[in-house]
Design a protein that fits this description.
alpha+beta, 134 residues, 1 helix, 5-stranded antiparallel sheet
Length: 134
C-alpha cells in the first residue's frame, strides 16, 4: 500500500512538471502566462481558471479560442483586443472585457511598457484552456 502511494505521488509530480514545461514551451516570445489558480465549480464538468498574462511592448498574442467564457481585467499597460464580430477595443489598466465561449480573439500590447491582464476562464474541464486559430 505504501509503495502504491509513493508511485502515485511520483506520477503526479512527473505529470505536473511535464504540464508546466509544455505550457512554457508553447508561449510566444514576449508573452508570459502565469497560472494562478484552478478550481472545480458547483456546475458539473466546469472549472474556474485564473491566469496572469504579461505582454512585452509591441507583442501580440495571436488568434485563439477558449472552451468557455473569458473575463479580462487589465492590470497594467494598454492592450488592444480584436474580438470576432466586434470592432477592435483598446483597454487600459482598470478596464474589463468579456469574451463569450468559443469566440476567436487576439490581443496586442500597443503601449510602450509591459502590459498585464488577469484572465478568468469558466471552462469545460479536461479541454485545453487555449486553442490557437490560423
Amino acid at each position: 500500500m505504501k509503495t502504491m502511494r509513493v508511485l502515485a505521488r511520483a506520477a503526479l509530480i512527473a505529470a505536473s512538471i511535464l504540464t508546466v514545461t509544455t505550457a512554457q514551451a508553447a508561449q510566444p516570445a514576449g508573452v508570459k502566462r502565469t497560472d494562478l489558480q484552478r478550481h472545480d465549480l458547483s456546475v458539473s464538468g466546469r472549472e474556474a481558471v485564473q491566469v496572469r498574462v504579461d505582454l512585452a511592448p509591441g507583442v501580440a498574442f495571436g488568434s485563439h479560442t477558449h472552451p468557455g467564457e473569458e473575463i479580462i481585467y487589465v492590470l497594467a499597460g494598454t492592450l488592444e483586443y480584436d474580438v470576432e464580430g466586434k470592432p477592435p477595443a483598446t483597454l487600459k489598466a482598470g478596464d474589463v472585457l468579456f469574451i463569450p465561449a468559443g469566440t476567436v480573439h487576439a490581443a496586442k500590447n500597443v503601449g510602450d511598457v509591459t502590459a498585464s491582464e488577469l484572465a478568468t476562464y469558466i471552462v469545460e474541464k479536461g479541454k485545453p484552456i487555449l486553442t490557437l486559430v490560423n
